[in-house]
């Protein structure tokens, strides 16, 4: 697209004044203590990038680098490990732990691999449903965890339905990172698991001399579970002005943005995108109230936007796949082009603001990311 045509493009954007005044209950503190007991646990890096701060016209920019989390190339193991721990503890308490259980889930890649890894480490079984559009290398990585893999000739929402049906079998349990009415407890545990990431950011910012917290946090969104954890973390503080929270989605799968625009959760038909882990058509039912009330703004980006952001992060020494780089791409889109001054004011950003970008995956989680901007035009199936 020529630059002049791009400048005339209307940015997919939604904003909610007053989100920073909304409050909710915090995540349980024992989650971080549990993760600290895991053999591979260590806080992931929070990397300051002064060049990005100058490019974006803000004071400081930090990237939370989730390219290696508990031995996997994405943040998802935080939620899967806590949820599986809770599931197995309940089974033991009720006397159901005599035989291995099959952990069933649907995935765009990273969550399924995390569930499969936990199953393998704990002597359980895993059955993972994978929708169309997930790269074969990501599917192979799940199978390498000794999981049974069922590939679905349809989108993510269809894979979720099939996984839910399969989990009705004896000695099976659904470990899904999205919720719907009647299935909300386990997804809630997964969201709790993600709280460790936010607690680490607090400590790391303090160590970097940022004692008042960030001015903005940008988070990639699929069904909204990570965004729910981020909203919970920053909107559960009893006093003080919290940061602006910005969600970022692919234009091909912007179910949260569409829901926010309509004022009610909706399901959409998704298209192909290199941001495979964000290719979701329905917001999680437990995430929706937090996203509706706690997000300051939502933006949708194109595959080329994500590819350019991933390439820029690579130049600065950060390994980030298309989903992880979406945070930078979304903030860059919000702060440039027509209407940028108004959006910057909405987000409360000035020349001294501190920004945190959540880079949720490394390049190893998504093979397309290694190809750079040219990969953005490829189909994902």
Could you spell the SSE succession in H and E letters?
Answer: HEHEHEHEHEHEHEHHEHEHHEHHHE
* Silhouette: globular
Instruction: Please state the structural category.
Output: alpha/beta
Q: Roughly what fraction of the amino acids lie in strands?
A: 5-15%
- Tell me the distance between the termini: 24 Å
Please work out how many helical segments DSSP would assign.
Answer: 15
**Low-pLDDT stretches:** 1-6, 369-381
Strand order of the largest sheet: 1-10-9-8-11-3-2
Helix content estimate: 25-40%
Radius of gyration: 19 Å
Reported for the largest beta sheet, the result is: 7 strands, mixed
Mean pLDDT: 93
Count of strand segments: 11
Comma- or semicolon-separated keywords:
disordered C terminus; 381 residues; disordered N terminus; 4-stranded parallel sheet; alpha/beta
In short:
The protein has 15 helices and eleven strands.
3D architecture notes:
With 381 residues, this protein is an alpha/beta fold. It contains 15 helices and 11 strands. The longest helix is centred in the N-terminal third of the chain and has 17 residues, at 77-93. It is globular, with a radius of gyration of 19 Å. Residues 1-6 and 369-381 have low confidence and may be disordered.
Task: Please describe the topology of this protein.
Blueprint: H1 3-8, E1 13-15, H2 30-36, E2 46-48, H3 50-56, E3 60-65, H4 77-93, E4 102-106, H5 110-121, E5 125-130, H6 136-143, E6 148-151, H7 156-166, E7 172-174, H8 185-193, H9 195-207, E8 216-220, H10 225-235, E9 244-250, H11 255-262, H12 288-294, E10 297-301, H13 303-315, H14 322-334, H15 340-347, E11 354-359
Parallel strand pairs: 3-11, 4-5, 4-7, 5-6, 8-9, 8-11, 9-10
Antiparallel strand pairs: 1-10, 2-3
Helix pairs in contact: 4-5, 4-8, 5-6, 8-10, 10-12, 13-14
């Amino acid at each position: 697209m020529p630059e002049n045509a791009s400048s005339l493009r209307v940015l997919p954007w939604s904003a909610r004044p007053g989100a920073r005044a909304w409050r909710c209950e915090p995540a349980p503190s024992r989650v971080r203590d549990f993760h600290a007991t895991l053999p591979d646990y260590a806080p992931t890096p929070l990397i300051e990038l002064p060049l990005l701060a100058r490019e974006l016209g803000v004071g400081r920019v930090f990237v939370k680098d989730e390219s290696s989390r508990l031995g996997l190339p994405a943040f998802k193991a935080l939620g899967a490990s806590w949820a599986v721990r809770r599931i197995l503890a309940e089974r033991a308490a009720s006397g159901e732990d005599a035989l291995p259980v099959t952990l069933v889930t649907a995935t765009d890649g990273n969550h399924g691999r995390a569930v499969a890894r936990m199953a393998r480490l704990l002597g359980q079984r895993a059955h993972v449903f994978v929708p169309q559009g997930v790269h074969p290398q990501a599917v192979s990585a799940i199978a390498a965890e000794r999981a049974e893999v069922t590939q679905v000739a349809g989108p993510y929402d269809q894979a979720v339905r099939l996984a839910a049906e399969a989990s009705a079998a004896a000695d099976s349990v659904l470990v899904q990172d999205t919720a719907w009415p009647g299935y909300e407890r386990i997804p809630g545990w997964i969201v709790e698991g993600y709280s460790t990431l936010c607690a680490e950011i607090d400590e790391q910012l303090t160590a970097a001399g940022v004692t008042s917290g960030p001015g903005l946090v940008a988070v990639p969104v699929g069904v909204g579970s990570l965004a729910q954890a981020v909203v919970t973390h920053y909107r559960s503080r009893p006093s003080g002005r919290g940061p602006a929270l910005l969600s970022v989605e692919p234009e091909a799968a912007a179910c949260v943005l569409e829901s926010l625009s309509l004022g009610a959760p909706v399901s959409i038909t998704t298209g192909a995108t290199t941001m495979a882990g964000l290719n979701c058509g329905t917001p999680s039912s437990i995430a929706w109230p937090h996203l509706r009330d706690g997000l300051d703004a939502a933006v949708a980006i194109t595959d080329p936007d994500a590819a350019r952001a991933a390439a820029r992060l690579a130049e600065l020494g950060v390994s980030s796949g298309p989903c992880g780089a979406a945070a930078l791409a979304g903030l860059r889109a919000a702060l440039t082009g027509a209407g940028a001054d108004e959006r910057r004011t909405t987000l409360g950003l000035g020349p001294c603001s501190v920004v945190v970008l959540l880079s949720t995956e490394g390049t190893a989680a998504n093979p397309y990311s290694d190809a750079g901007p040219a990969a953005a035009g490829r189909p994902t199936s």
